[in-house]
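request received
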Amino acid sequence: GEEVAQTPKHLVRGEGQKAKLYCAPIKGHSYVFWYQQVLKNEFKFLISFQNENVFDETGMPKERFSAKCLPNSPCSLEIQATKLEDSAVYFCASSRQDRDPEAFFGQGTRLTVV
Amino acid sequence: DQQVKQNSPSLSVQEGRISILNCDYTNSMFDYFLWYKKYPAEGPTFLISISSIKDKNEDGRFTVFLNKSAKHLSLHIVPSQPGDSAVYFCAASGPNFGNEKLTFGTGTRLTIIP
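response:
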């Protein structure tokens, strides 16, 4: 597709439940990024992929968070045993290739942990 | 440790006038700088970028200036239009932009007054 598609748009989970977010990057884009935006402002980098391979996971919390990008499937970000502090908007972005500055963002998934 | 700073949380400008949004950074390894625009409930949209080898880049009503020695960049919008009302994020990347993560500032909310 011509846009980064994120589902669902909103997700509500009770504390301790699992949350799974999906992202379909733009067709032909090699790189996928996940960012977490808390308090409406600060974007925190979580993880990036080059095709199916983890490229940079320096922002991923060591526990409870995992992500995958498998062939012919949307990428996913999974949070096990959600906590109140995981409430945020999670954005996925994709870019074509190296030396291409424009990363295209999806509309985000708002996760609310209650 | 906020490596990219936008010190003005908000800015109001009369329609037709110039809007100037500022951004400072601390990490001298940053090599590429981008501006994104964000409307509520949407993902950030790429506006304009600049490489550290340049001091100015222009695209229509948008111009970005980079002062590398001062570690400062600014976005000029001339003339400002009501549709420019949004939150603007400054972002920075290392030299391998496209596959590197972006480090974002906390954003400046621009309001254009008709």
